[in-house]
Amino acid sequence: METETQKTEARPGAKPAGKREQTKVQNRQTILEAARQVFADLGYGATTVRDIIRATPLASGTFYNYFKSKEEVFQAIHDESALRIRPRLKEERAKARTIEEFISGMFLTFFEFVVGDEDNFRAIQRNTDTLRVRMDTPEVVAGFDELREDLEKAIDQGVFPPVDADYMMAMLVGVAFEMAERMLRRDDHDIETAATFATALFMGGVRNLPHRKVTAVNGGPA
Fold first, then answer.
1. How far apart are CA 198 and CA 115, in angstroms?
2. Distance CA 170, CA 173 (A)
3. Alpha carbon of 116 to those of 10, 42, 163, 190, 210: distances in Å?
4. What is the pTM (predicted TM-score) of this model?
5. Average pLDDT over residues 145-150
6. Distances (CA, A) of 77 to 64, 97, 155, 163
7. C-alpha neighbours within 13 Å on the C-beta side of residue 204
8. Domains of the chain, start order
9. How confident is the model over 51-103, as pLDDT tens digits?
């Protein structure tokens, strides 16, 4: 992930970040990387601030210069994820010319990100229940607002029928997060199947969902 220091240095005419600023960025990233590992190993509930500090080379005073609690660290981790995925989702939605392209592109992009987000993969698996309580982080909420705005735009352009954009946003978000959680619990993270299932649900309702193969019970016919 590109740090704020790297972004500053990349801007034309921008002065390189000072050593103090670089240290602040590095310390924050050190804490977040350690917290990801600890949350993955112990789970959110069992993790303490002391556990996170012990996983870093930093002093406890340094930790509290950046975060007041483990809740703030957890929020920062998921806000960083939201900042990475939001531009990709917005780009996918912007190029959609049909309802199906809008919905399938969104689900496929989101599921690909969840599976490919190596930094947070194990932490997410270990803390799926906690994610429900952290849906109100600033960057995550901003992502929801962007989705609603894109839905309203798609309605204005005739891509979507004049449905309730707020309800539609809530439904898309709910299905995306719940299905991503279930997908992460499976040995085979079949992104295509998950995206196809979710898209079929929205496009045609339950009757349009792809059928699963029926397994024979006790050796009897399927």
1. 16
2. 5
3. 26, 22, 33, 12, 25
4. 0.75
5. 97
6. 16, 33, 33, 34
7. 7
8. 14-70 (1.10.10.60), 74-203 (1.10.357)
9. 999 999 999 999 999 999 999 998 898 888 889 999 999 999 999 999 999 99
Dihedral sign, Cα of residue 136, residue 155, residue 176, residue 94: negative
- C-alpha of 57 from chain center: 28
Question: Position of tokens 């799926």?
Answer: 128
Going from the C-alpha of 111 to that of each of 85, 154, 209, the distances in angstroms are 10, 22, 18
Contact 110, 176 (CB under 8 A): yes
73 burial type by CB count under 10 A (0-12 exposed, 13-18 middle, 19+ buried): buried
Backbone angles phi, psi at 119, to 5 degrees: -60, -35
- For the chain, what's the residue count? 222
State which amino acid sits at residue 138: P
